[in-house]
Each structure stands twice: as structure tokens, then as C-alpha cells.
Design goal:
The protein has 215 residues and is an alpha/beta fold. The chain is 54% helix and 13% strand. The protein binds thymidine-5'-diphosphate (TYD).
């Protein structure tokens, strides 16, 4: 199975936020959404897993199922969520010329299912490219943070951990390393930020990069 990659079709802009759990992706996605909306752009704010009704069912399995989920099944579930989401939400929005701001996309699959577990990163990436017919983001913001600092933030949140958040620290260190390797391999697509910075500083850095894409 091979699939080629392409940037977003139509006049829209596809921006994804990636990073470990507790790195502030949702906060930054919200701040960018507000800035773009205030500037008069139509924004579709979405996420994976769970950006559609079908996706919510998949999200429930991958995050909350109590028994074992085999690694291949897990990778396929995320890919199934992604396939449906891209076809029914992301591509239509891009074709309408809108900005799609998304929490997590295929880089999460490569980092978590590819590097963190037993599957190869290339096969996981190919699976996602097949699922999405090759759709890659125009910009991926990677919020990089030491897993111990991220864990402290999650602890402070006081929410119960999901299946992946509950993994050992070594798993999260692998995931972090994999995200950084992905960013190094595609420097034009990625903006890597130190997520220990103040949220306002991070937001300014994101805006600067997005502004260049909109110019
Ligand atoms: P997320 O929605 O960021 O969690 P939360 O709602 O707790 O902030 O992501 C859910 C989890 O799913 C997260 O631990 C990472 C994992 N994940 C994968 O393992 N593979 C994937 O392809 C995606 C999109 C997420």
C-alpha cells in the first residue's frame, strides 16, 4: 500500500496542532481560532479522534475501552476516524476556502501508534495517507514539552486519565522524540515551539507563521 501526499486542495488552509498530552494544544488552537475569526476568516475548529459522530464512537473505543486493543486494531481505528473526518469535514471546508484548525492529525498516529508501540512508523504513515487520500496539513504546530512537565499539568487538571495518558513516562518520552524527528524531517511544514513558554508568547509565534501563509 503506497499513497502520495499533497497540500490542502482549494483555497483553504489546513493547520494542525500536535504534541504530547498536556502540552496546551487546545488552548493554542482556541487562541488562533479567535484571532482568525476576528480577522474575518471562516474557521472550522475540529479534532481527532472524534471530529464526527462516527469518530465519537471510535474515540470512545480507543480512549475508554477497558480491555486490550491490539496495536494494529488501534492504528486502524484512528485511521478509520481520520478517513471519515477528512472526507466529510476537512476536505469540504478546504474546498470552500475555509481555515481548518485541528487538534491532532496523522503525526499523532505516527508518534503514538508507530513509535510508541510495536508498529513501524512508515507503515502507520502510509495507512493514514491511504485513509486521507494523501492530505497533509499546510502547517503543523508542534508544542514540545518534557513529559514530566506535561504530566504535572494533567495532574493539576484533576481529570481521570484516558488509556494513552495512563501510559508510562518512557512511552511519552518516545512519543516526544518521534514528534521531534517528524518535525526535523519536514521543516517547512512544522513550526516547533517550546510549550513551557507563556501561552501568549506561543500564540504570537503561531500568528506570525500563519500570517505568512495567508499573505
Ligand atoms: P486528545 O483528544 O488530545 O486527548 P484529550 O481529549 O485528553 O486532550 O487525544 C486523545 C489521545 O489519543 C491522546 O492520548 C493521543 C491519542 N492519539 C493516538 O494515539 N493516535 C492518533 O492518531 C490520535 C489522533 C490521537
Amino acid at each position: 500500500m503506497t499513497a502520495s501526499a499533497e497540500p490542502s486542495p482549494g483555497r483553504g488552509l489546513f493547520i494542525t496542532f500536535e504534541g504530547g498530552d498536556g502540552t496546551g494544544k487546545t488552548t493554542q488552537a482556541s487562541l488562533l481560532e479567535t484571532w482568525l475569526t476576528d480577522a474575518g476568516r471562516t474557521v472550522v475548529r475540529t479534532r481527532e479522534p472524534g471530529g464526527t459522530e462516527v469518530g465519537l464512537l471510535v474515540r470512545d473505543i480507543v480512549l475508554h475501552h477497558r480491555g486490550e486493543v491490539s496495536p494494529r486494531a488501534e492504528a486502524l481505528l484512528y485511521a478509520a476516524d481520520r478517513a471519515h473526518h477528512v472526507e466529510t469535514v476537512v476536505r469540504p471546508a478546504l474546498a470552500r476556502g475555509e481555515v481548518v484548525i485541528q487538534d491532532r492529525y496523522l503525526d499523532s498516529s505516527v508518534a503514538y501508534q508507530g513509535a510508541g508501540r510495536v508498529l513501524g512508523r512508515d507503515e502507520v504513515r502510509q495507512l493514514s495517507l491511504w485513509a486521507t487520500e494523501g492530505l497533509l496539513p499546510d502547517l503543523t504546530v508542534l508544542l514540545d514539552l518534557d513529559p514530566a512537565a506535561a504530566r504535572a499539568r494533567l495532574d493539576a487538571d484533576d481529570k481521570p486519565f484516558d488509556r494513552l495518558e495512563a501510559e508510562k513516562e518512557s512511552f511519552h518520552s518516545h512519543v516526544r522524540e518521534e514528534f521531534l524527528a517528524l518535525a526535523a524531517a519536514e521543516p517547512d511544514r512544522f513550526l516547533v515551539l517550546d510549550a513551557a513558554q507563556h501561552p501568549a508568547e506561543l500564540a504570537a509565534a503561531v500568528r506570525d507563521r500563519v500570517a505568512t501563509l495567508l499573505a
